[in-house]
Write a structure and sequence with these properties.
heterodimer; A: mainly alpha; globular; B: alpha/beta; Rossmann fold; 2 domains; 9 helices; 12 strands
Chain lengths: 242, 285
C-alpha cells in the first residue's frame, strides 16, 4: 500500500478507536457543545453576547479536539509503548501521524459546524457571513493547534500527568482568549498575554467569518500561521517515539 | 550459502559514561533460534534494540538480513517481526481488528485469521485487547509481529511474567516459528527457556558475551562431568573431564572393598550451573 493509502487506513482505524472510547469522545467533543448550550441559555439572551459566544466556543472546540486531544493521546500512546510498536513496523511515520491528526481534524471541523448550526437553529444567529473565511480559519487553527498538541506532548512526562498538563494550558487559555466573553473587557496585562497567544486570534478570525465581528482578520491569520510554523518545527524536531 | 541472518561485530553502546554493550560479536544463521541469555541489565535489550533499529550503536558493525538497521529501511522492516519487552496496545480493539489493521502495512502479509490460529488465539479473535489475560496479550504481541510473515523474529523476554502453562504455549509458538524456517533472536533471563528453545545460546554479562554455543555443550571447561555417590550417609562428589576413567577407578575400588556405590550419579552441569559460574566469574573480574 502507498503511504497515502496507509494514512487513510490509519485514519479509519483512529475513527473506530475514537468512538470506542465514549468518555474521551464526550470530553473532547461534546463538552464544548454542552457549555455552549448552558451558557447561551443561562446568560446570553442578547444577540451581542451570542455573537461573542458562538465564535468563542467554536475556537475552544478546535483547541479541545486538536491540542488537548493530541497532547493527551500522544502521551498515552508514547508511554504505553504503542508508538514504539508502530515504529517497529513498515508503517511510515508520516502516514501514521497523518491518520492520527486527520482524525483530530475531522473532529474539529465537525465541532465548528455543530457550533455554527446550534447557533443558527437554537439561538437564531445567522449562517456564517463568509463561509470560505470560516473554512480557512478552521483549517489554519487545526494545523496550529494540532502541531502545538504534538509539540506539547513532548513536555508531558507521563500519562498520569497528561490531564493536569493539558488543563493547565486549556483552562487559562480559554478564560483569557474571549471564549465566553469579549477579551476586550480583560485587564491590560491579561489582554497582552492573550494577544501573544494564538487562540484569541483564531477566535477573532472565526468571529469575522461567522458574524462579521469586525476584528482584524489579516493580523489574526498572520499570528495563527506564525504559531503554526513554530509549532510544526517543535513537533517534528522533538518528536519522541518512546 | 546465504549469509547469516544477523552479523554483529564488536558492537558497542555507551549511554554517556555508562557502557551498556562492550564489544559483542555473534552471528545468527538463517533458520536458527539464537538465545541471548543473561541477568537483567546485562545489555541484552540494548543489543536487540540496536538490531531492531530503535537505537544507534556507538561502535561496531551490524548487519540484519544484509541491511544496516540504523538506516531504518522500510524494506528491512517488511521482513522483520518485533516482539518488544513490554508494550501496550489499543485497549478497545479486538484481536482480529488489530491484525487486520497491522497487516496492511506489509507487502505480503500472512492472513490475519491464520495468524490468530498460529498463536492459539482463535477463541479470543473477537475479544478486545483489554479483556485478554497477560498470556493472551503476549500472544497478541506475537501475532502482531508475525502478521507480516517475517523471515526474522525478535523476541525480547517473550515469557516474562507468564504462568507455567502460558510459557509452554509460548514455547510451542517459538518451535512453530522454527518449523516454518524463521530465524529467531530471543532474549531471556530464564535458563530453562534458553535450554528449551535455542539452537545456540550466548551468555551475556555486563555488556560482554562470556560464553556461547549450543546449550548442552556450554561448559566452563574443567568441570564438565560430575560423579557422585553416597558414602557413610553423605554424598561424595568428583568433577572430571573424563568420567570413563574415573568411574572405572571408583567401581574397581568399590568392588575390591566389597562395597556398593549407593546413589551413584553421573551428571553434566546444568545450564544453570554453567550460567551461574560464568556470570559469577565475570562479575569478580
Amino acid at each position: 500500500m502507498s503511504p497515502m493509502a496507509l494514512a487513510w487506513q490509519q485514519f479509519r482505524f483512529e475513527r473506530k478507536l475514537f468512538w470506542r472510547n465514549p468518555s474521551a469522545a464526550f470530553f473532547n467533543f461534546l463538552l464544548p457543545l454542552l457549555l455552549l448550550v448552558l451558557i447561551a441559555t443561562a446568560f446570553s439572551s442578547e444577540s451581542e453576547e451570542l455573537e461573542v459566544l458562538i465564535p468563542g466556543v467554536a475556537g475552544m472546540g478546535v483547541l479541545a479536539t486538536t491540542f488537548t486531544a493530541l497532547a493527551f493521546n500522544l502521551t498515552l500512546l508514547r508511554e504505553e509503548g504503542v508508538l514504539k510498536r508502530i515504529r517497529g513496523t513498515p508503517m511510515p511515520a508520516g502516514a501514521y501521524l497523518a491518520g492520527l491528526i486527520g482524525s483530530a481534524t475531522l473532529n474539529a471541523v465537525v465541532q465548528v459546524a455543530l457550533v455554527v448550526a446550534i447557533g443558527k437553529l437554537l439561538y437564531g444567529v445567522d449562517w456564517p457571513q463568509d463561509p470560505l473565511v470560516l473554512v480557512g480559519f478552521t483549517l489554519l487553527g487545526v494545523v496550529c493547534f494540532a502541531a502545538l498538541g504534538v509539540a506539547f506532548s513532548h513536555l508531558i512526562p507521563n500519562e498520569d500527568a497528561a490531564p493536569a498538563y493539558t488543563n493547565a494550558v486549556f483552562l487559562p487559555l480559554i478564560f483569557i482568549s474571549g471564549v465566553f466573553y469579549s477579551a476586550d473587557d480583560l485587564p491590560e496585562a491579561l489582554k497582552a498575554i492573550a494577544e501573544a497567544l494564538p487562540l484569541k486570534h483564531l477566535i477573532d478570525g472565526l468571529s469575522e467569518a461567522i458574524v462579521g465581528g469586525g476584528g482584524d482578520a489579516g493580523t489574526a491569520a498572520v499570528v495563527v500561521a506564525a504559531w503554526a510554523v513554530a509549532a510544526l518545527f517543535l513537533a517534528v524536531r522533538f518528536f519522541r517515539w518512546e | 550459502m546465504a549469509s547469516a541472518a544477523i552479523q554483529v561485530r564488536d558492537l558497542r553502546k555507551d549511554y554517556g559514561p555508562v557502557e551498556a554493550v562492550r564489544g559483542v560479536s555473534f552471528d545468527v544463521e538463517r533458520g536458527e533460534v539464537f538465545g541471548l541469555l543473561g541477568p537483567n541489565g546485562a545489555g541484552k535489550t540494548t543489543t536487540v534494540e540496536i538490531l531492531e533499529g530503535y537505537r544507534h550503536r556507538s561502535a561496531g558493525e551490524v548487519r540484519v538480513l544484509g541491511h544496516d538497521p540504523a538506516e531504518r529501511d522500510r524494506q528491512l522492516q517488511q521482513r522483520v517481526g518485533i516482539v518488544l519487552q513490554s508494550c501496550g496496545f489499543y485497549p478497545r480493539v479486538t484481536v482480529r481488528e488489530a491484525l487486520e489493521h497491522f497487516s496492511k502495512a506489509y507487502e505480503r502479509p500472512r492472513d490475519p485469521d491464520e495468524t490468530i490460529d498460529l498463536v492459539g488465539l482463535h477463541e479470543k479473535a473477537d475479544a478486545r485487547a483489554k479483556d485478554l489475560s497477560g498470556g493472551q496479550r503476549r500472544r497478541l504481541d506475537l501475532a502482531l509481529a508475525l502478521v507480516g510473515d517475517p523471515e526474522l523474529v525478535f523476541l525480547d523476554e517473550p515469557t516474562t511474567g507468564f504462568d507455567p502453562a502460558a510459557r509452554r504455549t509460548a514455547w510451542g509458538v517459538v518451535r512453530t516459528l522454527k518449523e516454518l524456517g524463521k530465524t529467531v533472536l530471543l532474549t531471556t533471563h530464564y535458563l530453562d527457556e534458553a535450554q528449551e528453545l535455542a539452537d545456540r545460546v550466548a551468555i551475556v554479562k555486563e555488556g560482554r558475551i562470556v560464553a556461547d554455543g549450543p546449550p548442552d555443550q556450554l561448559g566452563p571447561g574443567s568441570s564438565r562431568y560430575r560423579v557422585s555417590y553416597l558414602s557413610g550417609g553423605s554424598r561424595v562428589e568428583h568433577q572430571t573431564d573424563d568420567p570413563t576413567e574415573l568411574l572405572h577407578r571408583l567401581t574397581r575400588d568399590a568392588i575390591a572393598r566389597g562395597e556398593r556405590l549407593e546413589g551413584l550419579e553421573v551428571t553434566r552441569p546444568t545450564l544453570e550451573e554453567v550460567y551461574l559460574e560464568l556470570t559469577a566469574e565475570a562479575s569478580s573480574t
